[in-house]
Amino acid sequence: MGNVYVFDHPLIQHKMGILRDKNTSTKDFRELTREISMMMTYEATRSLPLQDVEVETPIRKATVKMLKGEDIAIVPILRAGLGMVDGMQALVPNAKVGHIGVYRDPDTHKPIEYYCKLPSDIASRQVFVVDPMLATGGSAVASIDFIKERGGKNIIFMCLIAAPEGIDFLQSKHPDADIFIAAKDSHLNENAYIVPGLGDAGDRLFGTK
Q: 9, 148, 154, 175: which has the fewest Cβ within 10 Å?
């Protein structure tokens, strides 16, 4: 079973508080999403493999630690997931970026893929699937389904806010995926919105509320 990590760092929690405020502007919301995503990436990449590399300092040769390869892929779920990419790339600028678009069929309520473009070598990469919200978990599960169908194996899901219902559903369908969360909220309301949440992340990121 994959692990669930909920961040308790004071800076992340402080920024999450501002992010939730309905009076936070689109510009500030976008910048806060970037900053929180960057700080989460710092911790979520803790297990990346290292290798010994010899360099020459101004004083002498030295053996240092560097990442073993650049095998990282960031896959945002459109559209809100795009808001997390810049912050992550600030720390891992050589990561490849894929994109997945999913919508829910109004009749069957099942997730339907309308766009999926992934790195050709996705099978050999550590994949970070990102979306600010994990509500019902339907889009996250469907997106990871699509990645696995294309050969992806090592998958982490990262979000800003999650509801217990979404966490449970994602773990039940993809028990091998670790989940990184900036804040775990109380529950979903009758409209499947996270409570207390922050509203619609996509609308707040792109000013379409």
A: 175
